[in-house]
């Protein structure tokens, strides 16, 4: 009787929501067509409706006369002959695609124009274009060499010009790309230009939690160049990508290289050292004309958060040479001695105790203020007892993952969400009030999940595949999170198989929060309002979000508004509640909890549910001992 009632009730709810979804979809298309959305208005109208936020800075200083991020941007594919192009560029906003002759001023790259640090402090709107300009001096152009212009990330769509000619472009705001400038170069002064357009949350493209109307759990939209820019000389035939796969069970490592074109039997030389130090002891060397090789290490040191040992590796292909590193680790899933499914690290059950990280900074939005700022956040999370960070709906720069590799911090990597405007009734209120009904909905009902655009679904697939390729070599990345709380979710079972075919070395959370399709490696729940209970099943059981305790620290708040899930008015109350929550998590691990992700590491704009304040000046909670949140193995 109860089962039939639930089924009939679910059918009724589904019908109502499908109708709501259809109306939402039609209205969305009408708004886009007529340009009536707030974000489609003029910059003057947009400013009138936007609350003015006073400057709000963190604990780091980045003097304007210093070069931002002087470090080599890509630690796992390092070349010696490179030039950092971060620093002051000229910029201009336009309403057309025509390259402007006038400049509006200077912008500090790689900080987005919306943030204080950039020196611009202006929002790029969907119907506008943002242009960057700078010159490079080339006394001579080396024979037999090519000049690659490298971008860590540009949000959202970019076209690159060299000396007034289109040299290349890229779609999507979160992944790295390169452009070959060689055909457009001349001796002497060369002008580079970058044209950017960012549709943010007015289209189906990936956007994370950026919003042109921020508030609550959605944050200020940013745009343009937001990761490092550099150029490097390479030979005619060069290493375009490498794939490093540690084979823990056979004490070996597989290395595969991808060149920019046919190699005609080019010899590749791979050298593995005991560490990354240039003079470290050589363990093994392999020369081959093939594009893949396996190197036997023999006795080796494994990688883990407790002992993050990394091996150095040099890869040569003809005249090209890069330096990289890898860690010997193995992620898996299996039963413990009680028959409970657990996540495994190096063949043993390992509780992954995580914290959610949005990757926002008050003075610089998506871009960290400095390299030291990234290290501070990761080390603080580890000091608090966390051994895993869930990187939420954002792909960080390569150096962030490298710091996790070296410090010893696991990473759950979210894919970037997209799709149309979400239906809050379906994606937020229903799962919160009636979580049991969400398993009855199939995610091939595209209107419910705001995924009616076939082009948008194909776009997500492409960006997902490229994210796996870009981060595959990072020892720290232990799990892929495909969809979060149904936002833009579609065909999650099929997407799980797609990612599985790309990467057999990591686990997959196919639907974090709700709208579980029965796929992936973990049963992934979000629980902020109900008692925490564990129900072990064949998949590993995880709270992929929980907590969200709010303690607004006066004088360290970004906004007068405060968003969170449970509010405490003083530090003593907050400390007591957090200690109790830590104890509860430890108890639940004995009952079958395999992983947990606390929300969240820092306050972000109106959200004040971080352990750290948004400016990182106050840590609200200090565990009695770090092990309080990290049960012993």
| Unreliably modeled segments | 1-52, 628-633
- In spatial order, strands of the major sheet run 29-28-27-26-25-34-31-30
Computed CA radius of gyration, to the nearest angstrom: 25 Å
Number of helices: 8
Main pleated sheet: 8 strands, parallel
- Percent strand equals 25-35%
The structural class is: alpha/beta
Structural commentary:
The protein is an alpha/beta fold and 633 residues long. Helices cover 19% and strands 29% of the residues. It contains eight helices and 34 strands. The strands form nine sheets. An eight-stranded parallel β-sheet has the order 29-28-27-26-25-34-31-30, covered by helices on one side. Strands 3-2-4-10-7-8 form a six-stranded antiparallel β-sheet, with no helix packed on it. The chain is globular. The two termini are 44 Å apart. Residues 1-52 and 628-633 have low confidence and may be disordered.
Features:
29% strand; alpha/beta; six-stranded antiparallel sheet; eight-stranded parallel sheet; 8 helices; 633 residues
Write the topology of this structure.
Blueprint: H1 2-34, H2 43-48, E1 82-84, E2 87-94, E3 105-109, E4 129-138, E5 145-151, E6 154-155, E7 157-162, E8 165-171, E9 177-180, E10 188-197, E11 210-211, E12 219-220, E13 224-225, E14 229-235, E15 239-247, E16 252-259, E17 268-273, E18 282-288, E19 292-296, E20 311-317, E21 320-326, E22 331-335, E23 341-345, E24 348-349, E25 352-357, H3 371-383, E26 388-391, H4 398-407, E27 410-414, H5 424-433, H6 454-471, E28 477-481, H7 492-502, E29 507-509, E30 522-527, E31 540-547, E32 549-550, E33 566-567, H8 571-591, E34 593-599
Parallel strand pairs: 11-12, 25-26, 25-34, 26-27, 27-28, 28-29, 30-31, 31-34, 32-33
Antiparallel strand pairs: 1-14, 2-3, 2-4, 4-10, 5-9, 5-14, 6-13, 7-8, 7-10, 15-16, 16-19, 17-18, 17-20, 20-21, 22-23, 23-24
Helix pairs in contact: 3-4, 6-7
């Amino acid at each position: 009787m109860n089962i039939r009632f639930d089924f009939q009730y679910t059918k009724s709810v589904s019908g109502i929501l499908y109708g709501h979804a259809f109306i939402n979809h039609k209205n969305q298309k009408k708004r886009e067509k007529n340009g009536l959305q707030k974000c489609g208005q003029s910059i003057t109208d947009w400013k009138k409706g936007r609350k003015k936020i006073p400057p709000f800075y963190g604990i780091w200083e980045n003097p304007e006369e210093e070069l931002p991020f002087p470090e080599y941007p890509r630690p796992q594919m390092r070349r010696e002959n490179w030039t950092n192009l971060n620093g002051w560029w000229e910029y201009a906003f336009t309403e057309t695609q025509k390259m402007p002759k006038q400049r509006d001023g200077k912008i500090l790259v790689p900080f987005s124009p919306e943030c204080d640090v950039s020196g611009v402090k202006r929002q790029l709107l969907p119907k506008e274009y943002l242009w960057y300009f700078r010159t490079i001096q080339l006394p001579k152009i080396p024979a037999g060499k090519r000049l690659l212009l490298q971008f860590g990330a540009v949000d959202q769509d970019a076209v690159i010009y060299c000396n007034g000619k289109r040299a290349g472009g890229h779609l999507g705001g979160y992944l790295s790309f390169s452009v070959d400038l060689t055909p457009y170069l001349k001796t002497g002064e060369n002008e580079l230009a970058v044209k950017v357009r960012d549709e943010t949350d007015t289209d189906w493209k990936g956007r994370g939690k950026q919003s042109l109307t921020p508030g609550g759990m959605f944050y200020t939209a940013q745009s343009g160049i937001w990761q490092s820019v550099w150029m490097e000389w390479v030979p005619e035939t060069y290493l375009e990508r490498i794939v490093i796969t540690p084979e823990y069970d056979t004490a070996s490592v597989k290395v595969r290289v991808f060149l920019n074109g046919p190699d005609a039997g080019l010899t590749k030389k791979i050298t593995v050292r005991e560490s990354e130090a240039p003079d470290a002891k050589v363990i093994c060397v392999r020369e081959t004309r093939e594009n893949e090789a396996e190197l036997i290490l023999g006795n080796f040191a494994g990688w883990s958060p407790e002992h993050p040992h990394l091996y150095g590796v040099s890869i040569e292909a003809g005249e090209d040479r890069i330096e990289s590193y890898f860690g010997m680790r193995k992620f898996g899933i299996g039963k413990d001695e009680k028959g409970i499914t657990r996540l495994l690290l190096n063949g043993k059950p390992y509780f992954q105790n995580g914290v959610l990280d949005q990757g926002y900074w008050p003075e610089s939005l998506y871009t960290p203020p400095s390299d030291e700022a990234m290290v501070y956040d990761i080390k603080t999370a580890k000091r608090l007892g966390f051994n895993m960070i869930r990187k939420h709906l954002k792909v960080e720069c390569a150096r962030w993952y490298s710091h996790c590799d070296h410090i010893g911090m696991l990473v759950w990597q979210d894919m970037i969400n997209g799709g149309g405007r979400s239906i809050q009734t379906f994606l937020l209120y229903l799962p919160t009030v009636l979580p049991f009904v969400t398993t009855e909905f199939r995610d091939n009902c595209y209107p419910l999940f705001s995924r009616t655009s076939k082009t948008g679904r194909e776009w997500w697939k492409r960006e997902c595949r490229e994210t796996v390729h870009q981060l595959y070599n990072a020892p720290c990345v232990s799990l892929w999170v495909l969809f979060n709380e149904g936002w833009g979710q579609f065909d999650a079972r099929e997407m799980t198989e797609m990612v599985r075919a790309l990467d057999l070395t990591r686990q997959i959370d196919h639907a974090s929060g709700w709208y579980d399709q029965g796929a992936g490696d973990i049963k992934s729940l979000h629980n902020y309002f109900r008692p925490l209970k564990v129900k072990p099943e064949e998949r590993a059981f995880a709270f992929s979000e929980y907590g969200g305790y709010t303690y607004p620290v006066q004088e360290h708040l970004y906004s007068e508004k405060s968003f969170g899930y449970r509010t405490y008015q003083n530090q003593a109350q907050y400390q007591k509640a957090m200690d109790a929550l830590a104890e509860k998590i430890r108890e639940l691990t004995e009952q079958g909890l395999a992983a947990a992700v606390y929300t969240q590491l820092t306050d972000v704009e109106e959200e004040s549910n971080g352990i750290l304040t948004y400016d990182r000046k106050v840590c609200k909670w200090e565990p009695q001992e770090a092990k309080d949140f990290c049960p012993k193995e």
